[in-house]
């Protein structure tokens, strides 16, 4: 499990990361190169399955950007 806990704000970390990383929710950034599949949910959110099998909920406010970044 490659979870990283940091003591500063995510927007600060986000500005330092490459475009491979994506803000999936208010408290989560994921590596989009590690996404195995995505599926739409009824409530406007998406679920991403990562290569390690972990399921990640993509918040509604970030779905549009993820679709653009993945070209879907």
Describe the structure.
Helix content is 25%, strand content 33%. With 72 residues, the protein is α+β, with helices and mostly antiparallel strands. It has a single domain (10-70), classed as OB fold (Dihydrolipoamide Acetyltransferase, E2P) (Beta Barrel). The strands form two sheets. A three-stranded antiparallel β-sheet has the order 3-4-5. Strands 1-2 form a two-stranded antiparallel sheet. A hairpin with a 4-residue loop joins strand 4 (46-50) and strand 5 (55-58). The radius of gyration is 12 Å and the shape is globular.
Mean pLDDT figure: 91
Radius of gyration: 12 Å
Strand content: 25-35%
Largest sheet: 3 strands, antiparallel
Which class in CATH terms? Mainly Beta
What is the gist of this entry?
This protein is 25% helix and 33% strand. It is built from 2 helices and 5 strands, in the order H-E-E-E-E-E-H.
